[in-house]
């Protein structure tokens, strides 16, 4: 095989064993890699119904056929497992040299099961895996862990690690790399912590076999050049995702006061231009010439790498309008290994619940020190932070008082940073995302703003599906960053050329769409297998706040979603997907996608339609 190494590595932490598992070209061609491989591995190897924080869970690191080959923006790695936050499929996409080193070590994916008796670091150096005592690392934050490990193994080693949040099994703990890259919103860091696995160090020295190495080299150089010619390239390097603050403010979509409003009176203090004033550099993933991580000086006089989501969720959503302070909270979350999106949600929820006097804790909007202390309490599971560390859905269930209405989550995952009072298509994208309310698969809101916000039309459903296929299917399975395409307009046909040069196989765009549908249906089947007949459409209805409490300020004052219309839209979306009215794939759909065995197995867990 060219482009793929043809090997997975199976690691059992209980037995201190690591065994290579070859796989065939059929699997490579039918699911490509990254998310496709992760979904298939979890479907095949994970026992349904297991506790996500038990040794039975499988943590998968999966790269794609372009990883490690110098392709533009290909320094990404998919991390997946059954999510402790949602009980369904969870994954994240992390920018790290760890994926590149993993491939050079000879593996397209590493699958980790079991639980180490004592904390360990897994060190994979080419074909050899060793289990290193982590007593000197356990308790360290993610920055110190990685730096210490690089001092031992060298700066070129690829390291992923967890912080105290992952060790303490906070349900939205992430896995971190390179001081500012974070992945696995749905609690992948907690899964790693439950296995007593502090970090994985990858070192590889072999070349991945490539079908047409000279062609690939030329294409890579041409791709980097082409990216630099894109009209928005210069501004992207200036602000990265941060210009979204101003855009959301203009369009009443900036999450404010726990998604109660879409505009924030101090938005200009936390936006892209405010960021430029405190910016000291750019950072990012390997193999990227459009580095989007904005490095700024924070209020603790050290550096933070900030993105839009982090700033909106730890800024406007908790009422904080001081960017240096927001950046300091961002750095704290990175060090502790907490997902900033879920974190901003649980804090916003806690403040709103306190203001409504539904809890004894007294919390206020926009208080830096109070928020910082709460973040530490969440990571170390102290006081009220212990409950908040379970995620907003579980916290609301514990508190009661109708607080589920303002617990901003879908399928258990806290919503990303776009207010949807006036964005039905974006709400649909959240509702049907493969991991819970994440924007990664269909950032449809910018298209929706141009198209018209009020309608619940078929065009909107089609657009969500199109985006999910490209972003959630193709880019996640290639395990390549989507930003060159989605933010700068780097054309999709580059990727079919890269694939051909790397693998020698012609994979036209239509074939990639088929793989995308297959992957997304496999993930859907995973969720349904876990939930069985308790799965229902209501699980994909967004939080009631967006339907019951209109915006009270800004140009779209009075706007809110319509429940009956949204439900109708969701049903139509299911029909277009070939799913029944509950959102369960029909037998015929799975058969069309060459997943007859999945259909057969699913029948043991849920009543299916033809
Ligand atoms: C992603 C989610 C995002 S999406 C952001 S900002 W974004 C938050 N970043 C966090 C962070 O930082 N620190 C922290 N402690 N928690 C954080 N949680 C949030 O995590 C990320 C970039 C970004 S920045 C985005 S949109 C794009 N995402 C891609 C994707 O999903 N797939 C893909 N093929 N390409 C992508 N390119 C872009 O990558 P999750 P990263 Mg992340 C500090 O993983 O679980 O999906 O959560 O990986 O290396 O940091 O790159 O405005
Ligand atoms: Fe990473 Fe940003 Fe470059 Fe994408 S554009 S590869 S997220 S640094």
Strand order of the largest sheet: 2-1-6-3-4-5
The radius of gyration over CA amounts to 22 Å
CATH topology name of the largest domain: Aldehyde Ferredoxin Oxidoreductase,  A, domain 1
- Give every kind of bound small molecule, once each: tungstopterin, iron/sulfur cluster
User: Low-confidence runs (pLDDT<50, min 5 residues)?
Assistant: none
SS strand fraction: 5-15%
The overall pLDDT, averaged over residues, is: 97
Written overview of the protein:
The chain has three domains: 197 residues, Aldehyde ferredoxin oxidoreductase, N-terminal domain (Aldehyde Ferredoxin Oxidoreductase,  A, domain 1); 178 residues, Aldehyde Ferredoxin Oxidoreductase Protein, subunit A, domain 2 (Orthogonal Bundle); 174 residues, Orthogonal Bundle (Aldehyde Ferredoxin Oxidoreductase Protein, subunit A, domain 3). The chain contains 27 helices and 17 strands. The mean pLDDT is 97. Helix content is 43%, strand content 13%. The chain is globular, with a radius of gyration of 22 Å. α12 packs parallel to α14, α13 runs parallel beside α15 and α18 crosses α20. The chain has a six-stranded mixed β-sheet. Strands 8-7-12-9 form a four-stranded mixed β-sheet, with helices on both faces. The protein is of the alpha+beta class and 610 residues long. Iron/sulfur cluster binds next to loops. InterPro entries: Ald_Fedxn_OxRdtase_dom2, Ald_Fedxn_OxRdtase_dom3, Ald_Fedxn_OxRdtase_N, Ald_Fedxn_OxRdtase_N_sf, OxRdtase_Ald_Fedxn_C, Tungsten_al_ferr_oxy-like_C, W-dependent_AOR. Its cofactor is [4Fe-4S] cluster; tungstopterin.
């Amino acid at each position: 095989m060219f482009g793929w190494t043809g090997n997975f590595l199976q690691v059992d932490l209980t037995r201190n064993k690591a065994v290579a598992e070859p796989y065939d070209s059929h699997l490579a061609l039918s699911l490509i890699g990254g998310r496709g491989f992760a979904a298939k591995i979890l479907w095949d190897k994970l026992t349904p119904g297991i506790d996500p924080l038990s040794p039975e869970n499988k943590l998968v690191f999966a790269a794609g056929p372009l990883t490690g080959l110098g392709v533009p923006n290909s320094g990404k790695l998919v991390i997946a497992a059954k999510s402790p936050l949602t009980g369904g499929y969870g994954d994240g996409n992390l920018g790290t040299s760890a994926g590149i080193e993993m491939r050079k070590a000879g593996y397209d994916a590493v699958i980790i099961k079991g639980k180490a008796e004592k904390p360990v670091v897994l060190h994979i150096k080419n074909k050899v895996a060793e289990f290193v005592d982590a007593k000197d690392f356990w308790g360290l934050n993610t920055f110190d862990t990685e730096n210490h490990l690089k001092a031992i193994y060298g700066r070129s080693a690829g390291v992923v690690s967890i912080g105290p949040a992952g060790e303490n099994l906070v349900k939205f703990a992430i896995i971190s790399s390179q001081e500012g890259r974070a992945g696995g919103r749905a609690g992948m860091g907690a899964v790693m912590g439950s296995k007593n696995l502090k970090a994985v160090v990858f070192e590889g020295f072999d070349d991945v076999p490539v079908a047409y190495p000279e062609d690939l080299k030329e294409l890579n150089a041409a791709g980097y050049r082409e990216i630099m010619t894109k009209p928005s390239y210069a501004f992207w390097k200036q602000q990265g995702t941060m210009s979204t603050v101003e855009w959301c403010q203009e369009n009443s979509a900036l999450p404010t006061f726990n998604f109660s409003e879409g505009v924030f009176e101090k938005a200009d203090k936390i936006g892209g231009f405010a960021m430029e004033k405190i910016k000291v550099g750019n950072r990012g993933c390997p193999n990227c010439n459009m580095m989007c991580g904005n490095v700024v000086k924070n209020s603790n006089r050290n550096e933070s790498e900030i993105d839009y989501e982090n700033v909106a969720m730890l800024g406007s959503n908790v009422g904080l309008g001081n960017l240096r302070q927001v950046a300091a909270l961002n750095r704290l979350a990175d060090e502790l290994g907490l997902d900033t999106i879920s974190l901003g949600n649980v804090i916003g929820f806690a403040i709103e619940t306190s203001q409504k006097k539904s809890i004894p804790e007294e919390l206020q909007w926009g208080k830096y020190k109070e928020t910082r202390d709460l973040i530490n309490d969440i990571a170390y599971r102290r006081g009220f932070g212990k409950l908040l560390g379970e995620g907003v859905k579980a916290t609301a269930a514990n508190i009661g008082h109708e607080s589920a209405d303002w617990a901003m989550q879908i399928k258990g995952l806290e919503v990303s940073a776009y207010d949807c009072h006036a964005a039905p298509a974006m709400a649909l994208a959240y509702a049907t995302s493969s991991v819970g309310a994440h924007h990664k698969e269909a950032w449809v809101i910018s298209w929706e703003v141009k198209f018209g916000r009020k309608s619940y039309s078929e065009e909107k459903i089609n657009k969500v599906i199109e985006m999910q296929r490209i972003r959630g299917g193709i880019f996640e399975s290639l395990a390549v960053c989507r930003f060159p395409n989605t933010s700068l307009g780097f054309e999709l046909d580059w990727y079919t050329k890269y694939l051909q040069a790397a693998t020698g196989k012609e994979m036209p765009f239509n074939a990639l769409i088929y793989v995308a549908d297959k992957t997304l249906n496999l993930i859907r089947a995973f969720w349904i297998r876990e939930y069985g007949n308790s799965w229902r459409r209501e699980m994909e209805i967004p939080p009631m706040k967006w339907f019951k409490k209109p915006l009270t300020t800004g140009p779209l004052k009075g706007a809110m979603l319509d429940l009956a219309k949204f439900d109708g839209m969701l049903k139509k979306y299911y029909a277009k997907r070939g799913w029944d009215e509950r959102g369960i794939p029909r037998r015929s759909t799975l058969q069309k996608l060459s997943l007859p065995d999945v259909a057969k197995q699913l029948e043991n867990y849920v009543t299916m339609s033809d």
